Amino acid sequence: MRSFVLFIFLGLFFVLGTTKVQGQIFPKIIKKDKIDSVPTTPRKNIELGGFDQSAFLRELTARTDSMLFKNEVDLRRPRSIVDDSQDFMIWAPTNRLVKVSEQILIDSIWITAFEHYEPWDSQKIDIYDFDPEKFQDTVSLRLYDSFFGYDWKMPLETTPVTSRFGFRWGRRHLGTDLDLQMRDPIYAAFDGIVRIRSYDRYGFGYYVVIRHKNGLETVYGHMSKILVEVGQEVKAGEEIGKGGSTGRSTGSHLHYELRYRGLAFDPEIVYDFDSFKIKSEYLDITPETFGYIAQARSAVYHRVRRGETLGAISRRYRVPISQITRLSGISTRSILRIGQRLRIQ
Questions:
Q1: Best CA proximity match to 165, nearest among 9, 261, 79, 289
Q2: How do residues 194-252 score in pLDDT, each as one tens digit?
Q3: Where does the LysM domain start and stop, copy by copy (predicted)?
Q4: pTM, full prediction
Q5: Which domains occur in the chain, in start order?
Q6: What own/partner pairs with CB < 8 Å and gap ≥ 24 does 278-282 have?
């Protein structure tokens, strides 16, 4: 009996202990009071120093000489007033003004003009003291660049040639004569700035000289009226004057010249006037461009004396008569004048 009671007691103890161990123990849940949201602290204003735009632009301009760039800017390296590369026609304002003889203020970019020029003068065409015999380089000029808006234009609506570059009537003709009617419009050939507007009674008559961004200068002679002023910027195709026959002229025409550093060269190197087009986007200036000057310096001339004939002169210098007539711009039927200057070679 006592054993039975002990067995029941142990059985109950075992059952209750096992149930307690295997039963799920739930965590005690503590209910907390609702916490109010933390008040936000107003953000303090950030103190920004004042930005002086004018000072910044002055500093940037002083370091670079330009506010237009092709790709990237290195502020540590000062840039030239104009780009060193002749292949790009990017022009940037420098705001550097230079006083010239007429008290006109001209931006220095026009004085340098791609560093092909230095002085500025509105009275004389050739002011550059450029000796072609010492020029042994090849300078490549980009005449126009439509992508950047620098275009070209024929100087007239039509361009029939009446007289070409070279010797004519015993003297050198430094341009190409193009036929026109009185008061026909005359146009700037390229973008540029007017350097000279003047009158030459015994030569060009009313004429204009324009310095261009591509490194050339153009001359327009025998006008009846000039429509531009010195220092005025012009675009290719802008009307600069009216056709005429002023100065040393035998009829209405335009005397048109192309010059590099003051020296004229044959415009037909650049233009095909018969086809009314420009030959190429580029022009190479070489010693051969001014070959005629070297020939002229080595030329031989003869001054006609009383009683001399072409035959006698040709025998004296041992050259054909045809060579004398060709170089002197005369024919075999021309009457020789005492004191007339004939080119022999």
A1: 289
A2: 999 999 998 999 999 999 989 999 999 999 999 999 989 999 999 999 999 999 898 99
A3: 300-344
A4: 0.63
A5: 62-112 (no CATH), 161-286 (2.70.70.10), 299-343 (3.10.350.10)
A6: 278/143, 278/144, 278/152, 280/143, 281/142, 281/143, 281/144, 281/145, 282/140, 282/141, 282/142, 282/143
